[in-house]
Specification:
Layout (H helix, E strand, L loop, with lengths): L2 H4 L4 H9 L3 H17 L4 H14 L5 H11 L7 H8 L3 H10 L5 H8 L4 H8 L6 H10 L2 H9 L7 H10 L4 H8 L6 H10 L2 H10 L4 H19 L6 H13 L5 H9 L3 H12 L3 H8 L5 H9 L7 H13 L8 H18 L6 H8 L12
Helix pairs in contact: 3-4, 3-5, 5-7, 6-7, 7-9, 8-10, 9-11, 10-12, 11-13, 12-14, 14-15, 16-18, 17-19, 18-19, 19-20, 19-21, 20-21, 22-23, 23-24
């Protein structure tokens, strides 16, 4: 026979139970009443009385009483929302079971609790069996890397494409987050493509294998790696003949791509850019150089058309050239990396001022470049 049905409890009885000076008695009482409530053995009157007892007990000064209620009631679908919310707003130890399992809490409740910035509470919400896109978005915006891993690893979490892209952007250098993204059962193509260019070599291979990426994306991955190596060969000390030799080899093998030229330009390899554009346009290097450095916009635009460059890439080239003219090597350690980072950042700023160049186009090309060292000062 249950605690509630063994005796008809009066208000005095309830008060005595809840004000018993023995914490142990209150803990046991909380467990018994919550257990009877969850099993559904109570009648309507007893259930109503149990709920009133819960509303008092969730305010108990003894942590173990509140923790017992949270553990016992976390999966109860009939629990009044106000009781669940009070427990969810409690200290982390009490709140976590309710936040992870209770279906009584609404998305609005969860989003408000996420905003409290308690990492333990955020991680608990990220582990829920079902997480809506709205709750996922709040976790992405306000959580940290550990929260991101919990969320992305949860296959019951619905995460919109733009939030997945945001995670790649923010945590591109965090292998744990990147591994979790790659291991998701399904990834939008745009996310997979961005991961290709942000993840390490080992993770890129895993991405291609796990998600059966199309042949074109696998080839894009291989091209990305080749272009990274190619630009790395273009050291400042090589002479013009070597530059022309490299350009000729790349053109012959169909590897003198727009993304390679943009990569080289971002890293300040102006000689390679000039030689490559000359080769693609079929004109002498000197002629190409004069067109590139034409004070007006016509020379570069005409050269881009002659070289077969995509129309929407011209503003990026133009912005990159402006940056190169204004940014010099300073001879310090990691000089090339610092200059490249400055060039990229300033190129983005320049391109944003060109209305006919869509904001997504430069990001698309820059995404093909692996991250520069984070230690490189801007």
């Amino acid at each position: 026979m249950s605690l509630l049905t063994e005796h008809i409890l009066s208000e005095a009885d309830v008060t005595r139970l809840l004000t018993d000076r023995s914490a142990e008695t209150r803990v046991v009482t909380a467990g018994k009443i919550a257990g009877e409530f969850v099993t559904g053995h109570l009648g309507a009157r007893e259930r109503a009385l149990a709920i009133e007892i819960f509303r008092i007990m969730v305010q108990d000064a003894e942590l173990r009483v509140r923790l017992t209620l949270s553990e016992q009631l976390k999966c109860c679908a009939d629990l009044p929302r106000d009781v669940a919310r009070t427990l969810a707003d409690d200290v982390e130890q009490v709140a976590v079971p309710m936040l992870e399992f209770s279906t009584v809490l609404t998305d609005a409740d969860l989003i408000e609790i996420i905003a409290s910035l308690s990492r333990a509470k955020q991680r608990a919400i990220a582990r829920r069996s079902l997480v809506s896109t709205a709750v996922s978005a709040a976790l992405v915006d306000q959580g940290d890397a550990e929260v991101a891993v919990q969320l992305v690893s949860n296959h019951g979490a619905a995460i919109q494409e733009h939030d997945l892209l945001k995670l790649v952007e923010v945590y591109g250098a965090d292998d744990t987050v990147m591994h979790s993204l790659i291991d998701r059962s399904e990834l939008p193509l745009a996310v997979a493509e961005k991961l290709v260019h942000r993840a390490s070599e080992e993770m890129r291979r895993r991405l291609v294998e796990r998600h059966n990426l199309a042949d074109w994306l696998a080839e894009q991955l291989a091209r990305h790696s080749r272009e990274k190596v190619t630009v790395g060969m273009l050291t400042p000390g090589i002479d013009d003949a070597e530059v022309e030799s490299i350009v000729d080899h790349l053109r012959t093998n169909g590897r003198l791509t727009p993304s390679l030229l943009l990569r080289a330009l971002c890293e300040g390899d102006l000689r390679f850019f000039e030689a490559a554009m000359a080769a693609l346009a079929g004109i002498p290097w000197l002629n190409a150089s004069r067109l590139i450095h034409d004070a007006g916009p016509r020379g570069l635009a005409a050269l881009c058309r002659a070289a077969g460059m995509p129309d929407n890439l011209y503003p990026a080239f133009h912005a990159g050239l402006l940056v190169i003219r204004e940014t010099d090597f300073d001879g310090a350690e990691a000089d090339r990396e610092r200059r490249a980072r400055r060039a990229i950042e300033r190129m983005v700023t320049q391109v944003e001022l060109i209305p006919e160049f869509g904001s997504g186009n430069l990001e698309y090309f820059l995404a093909k470049m692996s991250d520069l060292p984070r230690s490189a000062a801007a």
